[in-house]
Amino acid sequence: MRLSRYAGWVLLLFMFANISPAEAQDTWSLQRCVDYALQHNIQVKQQDIQKRMAELTLKQSQLSRIPSLSGNLGGAFNEGRNPSPATNTYIQQSFYSANGGLTTSVNIFNWFSIQNQVRANMMDLKSNIFLMDKARNDLAFNVATAFLQILLNIEQVKVNEVQVKLTNSNLGNTKKLVIAGSVPESNQADLEAQLASDSVNLVTAQNNVTLSILQMKAYLNLDFEIPFQPEVPENIFDLQMARLDEMAPEMVYSTATTTYPLLKSDEMKIKSAEYNYKSVKAQQYPNLSLTAGLGSSFANNIKTSDLSQAIAKVDTVGFLASNPSQYVVQPGFTLPSSAISMTPFWDQISNNFQQYVQVSLRIPIFNGWQAKANSKKAALNLENVRLNRDQDIQKLRQDIYTAHANAVAALQKFNAATKGVDAAQKAYDFATKRFNLGLMNTIDYITTQSKLFRAQIDKVSAQYDYIFKMKLLEFYRDQKISL
User: Fold this and answer.
1) Short-list 36, 21, 258, 300, CA closest to 146
2) What does the alpha-carbon distance between residue 111 and residue 233 come to, in Å, rounded to a whole number?
3) How do residues 299-355 score in pLDDT, each as one tens digit?
């Protein structure tokens, strides 16, 4: 019996044996993994915070174009020698005072500094939106890569299980031959050693599945205690993929330059740096602004007299020089304490109400070279942002050419691995016949069997590697990935 057929039947039985548990468990398709990761991944959430911060910065800069308005309220207890609120002369008296007002200010002309800053912040927001797209696309690609790795490791577990079953079967037959005296006991010992080695390989493969699932859970930000059962596509080896000859690196690169979010983000950063340079440069020129305000005050020592309560009296003011016996009198009046009271609050507010309008021209003359230095720094930042864009373009092109070269190598490796399986299968078939006839010792037979086993592992790995490399090229071209 050919090992490939034997393996096929065992794998088929293994799949049917696991239908019920798989249906009972909550399976995860690739699309579900991607959707869940986009909602829960920490890095995507952090990038979303950066985008929202850029939105707030833009909103604040837009509102800075409208006049500012501020109010003030104050109160004080005055003791000792203080200026009188009524006469503005110094008095020795204790009193309470309060004041309040409103002030507004607006820039009339500042060489479009604020306007350019608004435009720079708008470009920063667009840049963060593209970076958000990049984070989501990168996460989707990483999830798909992890998903493929899980499927590959599962396939390797299945191949290892077939190998263990096959070695167990050979060991059972050999034990019967040893009992019958047809073969020496050393053959049994060799197969037992091979079974131990195959069991170790199976455990290693099973552990690789666990590790790849943990990597997937990290992308998903999924609790490690939650079971994860991948939904294996039925046509994993029949995926619709573009032909390699249709994925020329220059063609992929040309398409990627129009779809790659990082390059779009770089363009927005360049525009932002240009507007920021204009905004900073405008701060070297005069600034014309308008300020207006109003206010009033109150004090409890400002008095009001009721003259209707005045009491008339006659005072002697002196004597006549011509007749010292005669004196001069003058009518006067006095006010009782009840006629003097504190000026009412609203009367004081009305009496003390004041307004002002002020136009200011600020002319920078010397400020420690700060404005000039800021302008030069903004110009250097613009140059640096452009270099970052050029570097990202260069890296994208290099990555695409590297991915294409890796895809070519992966296809060649898969074709070679396919031929290797065919050759190893034929060698194993001949070895099985010779071993059953007693014409081959156990060591040589195990070696032939191990070569076939390794060839099958290499073919599965090469096939998944080719799928991954082609999906990477498709990702660069279309900025999306699917299985």
Assistant:
1) 36
2) 62
3) 887 777 555 555 656 566 666 677 767 766 666 666 566 556 777 888 888 888 889
Q: Is the dihedral of CA 179, 183, 186, 192 positive or negative?
A: negative
pLDDT, tens only, 6-20: 333 333 333 333 433
Count the neighbouring beta carbons within 10 Å of the beta carbon of residue 202.
18
Highest mean pLDDT among 322-326, 350-354, 379-383, 454-458: 379-383
Q: Three-state secondary structure along the chain? A: CCHHHHHHHHHHHHHHHCHHHHHHCCEECHHHHHHHHHHHCHHHHHHHHHHHHHHHHHHHHHHCCCCEEEEEEEEEEECCEEECCCCCCEEECCEEEEEEEEEEEEEEECCCHHHHHHHHHHHHHHHHHHHHHHHHHHHHHHHHHHHHHHHHHHHHHHHHHHHHHHHHHHHHHHHHHHHHCCCCHHHHHHHHHHHHHHHHHHHHHHHHHHHHHHHHHHHHCCCCCCCCEECCCCCHHHCCCCCHHHCCHHHHHHHHHHHCHHHHHHHHHHHHHHHHHHHHHHCCCCEEEEEEEEEEEEECCCEEECHHHCEEEEEEEEECCCCCCCEEEEEEEECCHHHEEECCHHHHHHHCCEEEEEEEEECCCCCCCHHHHHHHHHHHHHHHHHHHHHHHHHHHHHHHHHHHHHHHHHHHHHHHHHHHHHHHHHHHHHHHHHHHCCCCCHHHHHHHHHHHHHHHHHHHHHHHHHHHHHHHHHHHHHCCCCC
What is the dihedral angle through the alpha carbons of 105, 110, 112, 114, rounded to the nearest 10 degrees? Answer: -40
Instruction: Pick the closest to residue 313 from 288, 330, 299, 300 (CA basis).
Output: 330
Name every residue whose Cβ is closer than 8 Å to that of residue 118 and which is 6 or more positions away in sequence.
58, 61, 62, 64, 65
pTM given for the model: 0.74
Q: CA 185 to CA 11: how far, in whole Å?
A: 31
Structure tokens at 415: 């074709």
> Which residue in 377, 432, 370, 395 sits closest to 1, CA to CA?
432
Instruction: Kindly report the backbone phi and psi dihedral angles of residue 333, in degrees, each rounded to the nearest multiple of 5, phi listed first.
Output: -155, 160
How many Cβ atoms are within 10 Å of 196's Cβ, its own excluded?
Answer: 11
Residue 369 main-chain phi, psi, to 5 deg: 65, 20
For residues 139 and 334, the answer to whether their CB atoms sit within 8 Å is no
Long-range contacts, stretch 315-319, CB < 8 angstroms, 24+ apart: none
